[in-house]
């Protein structure tokens, strides 16, 4: 089943005072099936963040549609969007976005508190997720008391606690050292194996090599895509590197 359908997205930024227009996305179409793990790559300025913001319903496209399980989020009213985001989407950001004055547990509970869930219900959900992410012993600590990798695992727990249709991750390993990066990528593969749909924007070839499909954006369009299939992470890494070189050297996708 298709979870996410993106149809002919165009985004033109108009600078203030009616100045220059920037076409960040010119015509993007793709879909994500339930249970997929997709990475989106592209050079700096290719439109990745713009695309993710539109998928996250944080920004509106100039034209085109984003359907999540058939609901057109690009035409949804602002007042319904916050609830929609909370109930259907999970977010993982490069810089964790945890609240410093909340314990890790309260950070993870936040989306459930906002949805009006009771404590027992929240705790029942938290226990298996925290165990799976290896943070059960840290739940009463505050963000400043734990490592970057532990913060990011907390952010993943917060993303998963609402059982979202899709996890949207923006450069999730960008602020992590290589050991924590490895742990986070293992966690993403593990939750994906258990059925969680993931869409991740990343510059990191290593991170993308864990995904089952990689989409490449160039000049505001999907330039190419690679399926992992039976490839190992190392083979996928090489295939992605070759495609990035092709993009950087201005080659065509058929070369
Ligand atoms: N708010 C904005 N107003 C005007 N132009 C913008 C705005 N945000 C992004 N752009 C432009 O749109 C294009 C795409 O930017 P975007 O941030 O989506 O790229 P990116 O692929 O995420 O880049 P990076 O990898 O460096 O984060 C760029 O040319 C950028 O300068």
Automatic annotation (TrEMBL):
Pfam families: ABC_tran (PF00005)
Record keyword Transport present: yes
Keyword Hydrolase: no
Annotated Gene Ontology cellular component terms: membrane protein complex
InterPro entries assigned: AAA+_ATPase, ABC_transporter-like_ATP-bd, MacB-like_ATP-bd, P-loop_NTPase
Residue ranges occupied by any ABC transporter domain in the UniProt entry: 4-244
Keywords, comma-separated and alphabetical: ATP-binding, Nucleotide-binding, Transport
SMART domains the UniProt entry points to: AAA
Single GO MF annotation: transmembrane transporter activity
Name of the featured protein: ABC transporter ATP-binding protein
Lineage of producing organism: Bacteria, Bacillati, Bacillota, Clostridia, Eubacteriales
